[in-house]
Amino acid sequence: MNTQTIPPLAADAPVVLEMSNISKSFGAVTALVDVSIKLRRGEVLALVGDNGAGKSTLIKILSGFHQPDTGTIVSQGKEVRFASPRDARAQGIETVYQDLALIGDLSVFHNMFLGREYHKRILGLNLLDNRKMREQAQIYLDTLGISIPSVNSTVDLLSGGQRQCIAVARSIYSSPKILVLDEPLAALGVRESAHVLGLIQNLRQQRQVSVILIVHNYNQIFEVCDRINFLHSGEVALDASTADTSEEELIRIVKSGLGRKAIDAAAAEVRPGIV
Amino acid sequence: MPPIEPLKAGKNAVGVKAPHTMTERLLILLSRYREASIAVVAIVLVIYFQVGSDGGFLSPQFMSVVLRDTGRLGLIAAAEVMLMITGEIDLSLSAIFSIAPYVMALMSVTWGVPLAVGAVIGVLIGVLVGAINGIITVRFRVPSLITTVGMLFFLQGIVVSIYNSQPIVAPVEQPFNAIFGQSLYQPSDALLSWHGVTAFTPFLWTVLIVLALALALNRTTFGLHTIATGSNIIGAREIGVRADRMKIYNFMIAGGCAAFAGIINTAQFTSADPQAGSPFLTLQAIAAAVIGGTSLLGGSGTVIGALIGAFVVASLNNGLVMIGAQATVSDIYLGAAIIAAMILSIQVDRLRTRRRL
Ligand SMILES: Nc1ncnc2c1ncn2[C@@H]1O[C@H](COP(=O)(O)OP(=O)(O)O)[C@@H](O)[C@H]1O
Ligand SMILES: [Mg+2]
């Protein structure tokens, strides 16, 4: 699959999402401090950082699973407040969580449609339209080129890679405007990874979907991402376009743990009053 | 979207481990056909008692007793299944079973409130107690085992303190009693006559409610979200399932079912006894649920299985006595059956969670 060349993002691509000054603590643990990120239409943003840097917490705030202690989220030009993942999904923000959020005891097709089930009325009762969901799931997975033994099998019978593919497929079913993927390639082999990255490319090019992608493999970042945000100890330490950065430079910065912001912070300590 | 070169995972995809040992295969079979396997046990039991009692076990009179017990136990067992699927349990159901009809009878004798109205109030009390159990459990994160044991003593204390803990002779009002449990059956009646059917009304009500619960569990969004809540509560929340609400709703359903079971019991015996529901009733119902194939870990269960499980427990209770065993001996068999069912259930669960890794 050809994923080498990323067409440059249109210079006037509008900002679809702005998270500003987000902070979040869990009791004594501070997960995020004053984090701001910006996402433009059709942009693929890589979120990188060590384990515990706060990446998952940030995207769980975006998905409505956590509520921030401070900070604002502006989506499509309007300030939004997500009280639950339902609210975020209703705004066209779909998330593939690191833990995949699949229900092991339910079938693949029930998982695909969990929270947005198809119904049919029988004798005045609002019953699940299992046949429609089964068919749609099968058709959809076929279109995406994801092959599993059966959409009827319960998810806990599938392999890690297959489950990851189901979670990704579920997240793009409703044609989201913003797609958030937390380590979606972790359990995937080389071919499967390339496949999912190809899906992301397609979404970006054909539907102008904006993507936030958390990955650890820098190769893959430079394959599909427009911009990189490096999260370090709950702060954004680097915000750079992939065109202006090389893989070597990124690795050097990540290893040092000092990004632009960290350097600014060090400077601010010398000149108090700027903070 | 244009098709992308497909990934060939196919039938032999990694991760789908074929079961190897005979035991594993048997357990998978049992977990897949839970209702069928417990039905086989029930049929074997019926044959055993039928032969042992020279044909007395399946007589209408005796079945009327066994099915009456099955109805009472089965309704509470089905209620317990709904909760166990969400990963919770309710030990206060026996107290709700006592208090709801007690309030109904008390209102009838003191204020002349019609039984039908009292019954509705009784069921609402059950639903309300369920809601309180649920809210305490999810809001304050008290394990439901503790919440509901507290509620059990609390309600038991209330019900014995009102009216000096005297059993009340409940008035008979028709058609209320005839509809909700009073047996008009005489040995001379045909089984398929109106009088014949009344011998089984408690059981028929339970069947009706169990079928409704089965429909809710397997064919509605409510059921899907109930299973999701118990199977993977964090994942369910992440995808937008209102897991806490699902738990509270199921506590409310359980409370309503227990209240209804108590009201049927009172309509049947025309007496409201504050001690009508002993905690053993709840424990036997949980046993029936597990024997019927409901997981102790949440995420999986069957109300139909619970009804068959209740029949097994009721058959053991009555059948052993009938074929000449001492009443105490029947407890030994019941105890052994429960332990065997628990061991089996945990083996099946282990297989389930192992696959999940
Ligand atoms: N629900 C939670 N309760 C308490 N602490 C949490 C919770 N979620 C995350 N944390 C803490 O917040 C920090 C950031 O975690 P996380 O966002 O998962 O990091 P990452 O995804 O970058 O590895 C960690 O120190 C983690 O222990
Ligand atoms: Mg993470």
TrEMBL record, chain A:
Keyword set includes Cell membrane: no
Q: Gene3D superfamilies recorded for this chain?
A: P-loop containing nucleotide triphosphate hydrolases
List residues of the ABC transporter domain. 17-258
Originating species: Mesorhizobium kowhaii
List the InterPro entries: AAA+_ATPase, ABC_carbohydrate_import_ATPase, ABC_transporter-like_ATP-bd, ABC_transporter-like_CS, P-loop_NTPase
Q: Give the GO molecular function terms.
A: ATP binding; ATP hydrolysis activity
Instruction: Report what the protein is called.
Output: ABC transporter ATP-binding protein
Tell me its family: Belongs to the ABC transporter superfamily.
The membrane spanning regions, by residue number, are: none
UniProtKB/TrEMBL annotation, chain B:
Task: Tell me a GO cellular component.
Answer: plasma membrane
- Spans traversing the lipid bilayer: 36-52, 73-99, 111-132, 144-163, 192-217, 248-267, 279-297, 304-326, 332-348
What InterPro entries does this protein's entry cite? ABC_transp_permease
Q: Which CDD domains match?
A: TM_PBP1_transp_AraH_like (cd06579)
Annotated localization = Cell membrane
Record organism: Mesorhizobium kowhaii
Q: Which domain of life is it from?
A: Bacteria
What are the protein's UniProt keywords?
A: Cell membrane, Membrane, Transmembrane, Transmembrane helix
Q: What is this protein called?
A: ABC transporter permease
GO terms of molecular function: transmembrane transporter activity
Write down the membrane topology. Multi-pass membrane protein
